[in-house]
Amino acid sequence: MSNRRPRLSRPSPSPQPEHTSASNATVDESVASVIERLRATGGRATTARRLLLRSLFASTRHRTAEDLIAEIQLEAPDVHLSTVYRNLEELERLGVVAHVHLRHGPATYHLAPTTHCHLVCEECGAVLEVGDGLFASLAAETLREYGFTIDPHHFAMQGRCRDCSRHPPSE
Fold this sequence. Notes:
This protein is of the alpha+beta class.
């Protein structure tokens, strides 16, 4: 298990274009690399697909399809939510993105190379991203006892974060 401290994020109140330290050149290179993979499998490099990839590579946050369409429509208002869902499915099939269910509600998407597990606070909504090793013993035990292979990246463990655990649960 890693001594690395888990990354804590709070849910954003509304979808906004993400501004991160990733340079435009780095984002452009990443988008070009995925477009090349898509073309190799017969896919096309549409404007909607490029804008979706830009949004995904420009941020490390987990976002719903609705968050992503809000960002994309700032530049291309004619792109539809169904187009984003179809593109996300294709990108997931290629191993570029992964989705996870952090809370009750829609799936959130993030880049697959940053695969990790999630702990979600039921009180404040904080999401802790933790290394894969946290669920390794659970996965091994489940396989040994039940012959069942779990995918700990697809779901989130619900509970209370350190800060919220210091206080009695709200009713």
